[in-house]
Amino acid sequence: MQTVTIAGAQVPAIGLGTWHMGDDPALQAQEIEAIHAGLAAGAKVIDTAEMYGSGRAETLVGKAIKDVSRDQLYLISKVLPTNASKARMEQSLDASLKRLGVDHVDLYLYHWRGQTPLVETVDELQRLTEAGKTKAWGISNFDVADLKELWQLPNGPQAAANEDLFNLGSRGVEYSLLGWQADHQLPFIAYSPVGAPDQLPTNLASNPNVLTVAQRHHASAYQVLLAWVVSHQQVLAIPQSSNAVHTKENVLAGNIQLSAADLKLLDEAYPAPTKKLPLDVL
Question: What pTM did the predictor assign?
Fold first, then answer.
């Protein structure tokens, strides 16, 4: 299975996303079952955020992991821009930890840029890391210009990962961002790695070339889409599913090795960018 190393911690390259989970009490048992299925299949990363359902996703994760050994988990959460100040961030993180039922997260991300000066946010992220409430910190929805600005700050290069939208139908980050992050040993976390219905003009999973590659590997189209994302070095994918079978399949996609011929076929369907594009954001 492909792996990614974040701040010295090696984790399987496919984890579990939780956006939109925890919103419907009637689905709680099913969603917890899906998280358990993903962990049983070998996932370690669970990605969540205080924004997701105004904390309901974190509460759901907390219920799902209460009997799971902490060292079997790599927990990521995120702070909203409105809470990313010296005055508010620790209170925000404490609330996330309480909902998750843990004393620390493994990675705490600045969800997207807001009005607080970047240096203030970064210094507070570093302080909370040194206080042990998170093992590492990072950023989300940052592009190359943002990262260059970050790297000029005293604590900026302490960032452990950047999380952005990336999938076969949304390849803009390949033009310069992935290369910049590789050059600076900054792992990349891909959200919406199989595409999002409201983001893409067509469904990636129904593309003939994707289906051809899936048949070659006796895999589902979604597994191929995930395998493509994590075929990039130091890229972690966090697909979300509330279905236990699908969640297991997602995690097992990390075992699929795409050939040069597979990659060529996928490139023909969805070519790599030839110029800098605006960062895709959901």
Answer: 0.97
Q: Where are the domains of the chain?
A: 3-269
Closest residue by Cα to residue 105 from 142, 132, 145: 132
- Amino acid occupying residue 74: Y
Beta strands 9-12 and 3-6: pairing type? Answer: antiparallel
Specify whether the CB–CB gap between 278 and 39 falls below 8 A: no
Q: With contact defined as beta carbons under 8 Å apart, do 246 and 257 qualify?
A: no
Q: Tokens 């010295």 label which residue?
A: 8
DSSP annotation string for 197-227? TTT-SS-GGG-HHHHHHHHHTT--HHHHHHH
- Residue 100 backbone phi and psi in degrees, to 5: -80, -20
Per-residue pLDDT of the chain (282 residues; tens, 9 = 90+): 899 999 999 999 999 999 999 999 999 999 999 999 999 999 999 999 999 999 999 999 999 999 999 999 999 999 999 999 999 999 999 999 999 999 999 999 999 999 999 999 999 999 999 999 999 999 999 999 999 999 999 999 999 999 999 999 999 999 999 999 999 999 999 999 998 765 555 689 999 999 999 999 999 999 999 999 999 999 999 999 999 999 999 999 999 999 999 999 999 999 999 999 999 998
- Please state which architecture CATH assigns to domain 3-269: Alpha-Beta Barrel (3.20)
